[in-house]
Amino acid sequence: MSENEFKSGFFIGGEACEGRVLVVDDEPDIRKIVKMTLQKAGYEVLEAENGEKAIEVINSGENRLLLDVVICDIRMPKINGAEAVAYFRSNYPRVPLIVLTGFPDTDMATSFLRQGVVDYLVKPVEGEKLRSAVARAIEQRELARL
Amino acid sequence: MALLALLGNSRMLKKAASGVLASLRGSTYRSVRLASSLTAALLDDLFEHPAGRSTALPHGDRLMEKSDHTKVAILGAGRGGLALLDLLHQIPSIEIVGIADRDPAAPGLPRARELRIPVTTDMPDLISNHGVSLIMDVTGDPEMEAYLHAHKPPTVDILSGSASRLLWQLVQHESKLEAELLQSEKLAGIGSFAAGVAHDINNPLQLILGLAENLAEERDLTAVHEQARDIIEAVKRTSAICRDLTHYSRRASPHENVLVSVNDKLDEALKIARYASSFHDIEMIKQYQPGAAVKGNPDELLHVLVNLITNAVHAMEHAGGTLTLETTVLDEQVGVRISDTGCGIAPDKIPEIFEPFFTTKAPGKGTGLGLYNVKTIVDKMQGKITVDSQIDKGTTFTLTFPNAEPAGQEGCLS
Known about the structure:
The complex is a heterodimer of chains A (146) and B (414). Chain A is an alpha/beta fold and 146 residues long.
């Protein structure tokens, strides 16, 4: 992704960027691999190891405005994924949420989608699928802004 | 007389035994338990009220005035003698005064020594002296019965021949039943591992997939090597999960009785318990005294510890807390303490917690057999289990076992 090809139209630190994504997962390996996968497609990736940290990150500085997507695990310490999802939905309804979980659970998926979660992905997820889910989420956010 | 009392009961005993079998086939917990307690009740009757069902017997009034204990001599230390030892030593009203076998290598003899029951090859001495009130003959020797009737003191009862075989069969059923209950509960519990296992397998899989996708395009050889190593490590972690779980879910070998390190088993139990419950927000304190060793079945002890740790963690699932695992070694005793700072158990519920089918969990969430099986195994290991609990403060389960390696006696276990 070259600097000239930016799409969603904002600049971070003077560089073109596809968007800013927060990945919330207690496993450093998962954060590392999601970051690697998304950075390749030009996203800026922030990390949080649990729901509590995620809330801290989203409330800090420009993130409140510039965060495009949150990718959230469910089984986590402190504030778990389900609680974090509820918090994000009520406080930041404009930020699209993608759930990325290790435990496929149809009931939980339905409940999340009802709460407005845009995608429910089950690990292991291919890089391409993850990138297109993020792209789709940002597109919806752009549409919602219009 | 006890023999006749037993024969008088034999129809009921057979009924109980066939109930046990039918229930095992039907495999419903409650009926299995019912048949089992019927067997136990009959055994209780036999030993505690030997004259109760045998009014027309000679010496009918003698046993009424005997001391509280039935003094039993066991002849034959083969499989039958071994099973009787394991059963009878758990019953408080029975005192086993000795066990005899002509074969010094009989399998019941080492077990008797462990239970501190006198072992002898001198049968005449055992049956005539020591105040024996009941001789249980499980030698399988057809001449023994005639010999006993000719040589026993007049006040002593004999349980032999078909009656002792029937009793032995019941004991066998009982132990099969316990094993079946234990296995069923364990397998039922494994269902609750699904979320933990899925989490722990799918996370490394995500890493493996992501790295492999990256490797397909990676040109930097150093990065390739590093990521390949990461993949290997992730695969190892994943396969360890399958190893732990298959080990845990296998059927405990029924008669294994070996030296087990309690500290190692606690660590192993922690690994398993992590699948069953979320350890997030739980602080762990381990205080292990080195050398804590007990005698028993390692798989069964593991099951006890997994159960107690899982319960402790469940008690803290809403607010988090501290899980403390502690072992102590005194001269004669090994202690294990598992404490949580969770919701606690209501005082009126405490007397019920070791009862089968007692559960505070929602229908379908617990079998109600967890602590019942825990208690059964601890009893079998000649241990004790006590509970101390306060609502909203927490619960401590304390296990005490005979020290398998008291100071200065290492290597003396025969």
